[in-house]
Amino acid sequence: VVFEGVRGNSYNGDIALDDISFTVSSANCRIQPPDALPAGMTTAAPPVSTTSSVSPTTIGNQGNDCNFESGICKWTFDSQVHFNWTRHKGSTGSGGTGPKYDHTLGSTGKGWYMFIEASYPRKPNDTAGLVSPTIQKSGPYACVLFWYHMFGPHIGALNVYMKDGGQTKTLMYQKVGSQGDEWKEGLLQLSPTKSSYQVIFEGVRGTSYQGDISLDDISFQNNQCPPSSECTFENVVGSQSSSCGWTQDGSDNFDWSRATGATASYQTGPPFDHTYGTKQ
């Protein structure tokens, strides 16, 4: 896919892009291509993948992977925070937030997942931590694959930290605000420097009760992550480039620029990005 920006007749013509993602479900596309079927006609949608894009045979540390069907495996709760993640199946107790079912078994309704309950007595910015077992490094790279669901008007944040060799935790991945009513795949590239490391998933409670955040199907791979199907152009995610593998077209006249806040020209361009809605 190539996004081509065409300059207009003067300088008040800045064009911006953000939050590019791909979906295999035509039901989620609000804009159809010009040759789409006429209104009233239907065709079968392609099957929606409910599994990771990485072959199971490439995943290492099998004892540390967890789909939460039989408990929380070797994972533990962070005792230094405000509350704990909850293992659950089906929809959460609050309307307008949370998934309808887990990611592993989908619409069967029989599967389990982890979530943070944002209802009372939780307060804004309360945190819950889900901590991996200690994982032995077996190469220069490690990839954490997981599925998350963040839907609701009061969603806070999902932070993922790495503790390298038991040292101070470092923020490696972050999602803020509602991400839509669907399970999405997260990929976190790590380059541990010590012989062992841990991963911590931190759920941050938002402004009110419609802010449930869910996790499922966490696994580890002992090599580099595959390309992501989503790009927010932020620069938090581990060692991955902020361009997520997108490249400039060398055959055109000029390049797209990565920016924050407003563009330099008056009365054109956005005042802030789409991902966070801030100037940062």
Describe the protein in words.
The protein is mainly β and 280 residues long. The chain is 0% helix and 26% strand. The protein has strands spanning 20-21, 59-60, 76-77, 86-89, 112-116, 127-131, 135-136, 142-150, 157-164, 170-176, 184-190, 196-204, 213-221, 230-231. The strands form 3 sheets. Strands 2, 4, 5, 8, 11 and 13 form a 6-stranded antiparallel beta sheet that branches. It is globular. The two termini are 27 Å apart. 29% of the residues are buried. Mean pLDDT is 83; it is low at 34-60 and 236-240. Pfam families: MAM. InterPro entries: ConA-like_dom_sf, MAM_dom, MAM_domain-containing.
The radius of gyration is: 20 Å
**So what's the overall shape?**
globular
Assess the beta-strand content as a share of residues: 25-35%
Q: Please state the oligomeric state of the protein chains shown.
A: single chain
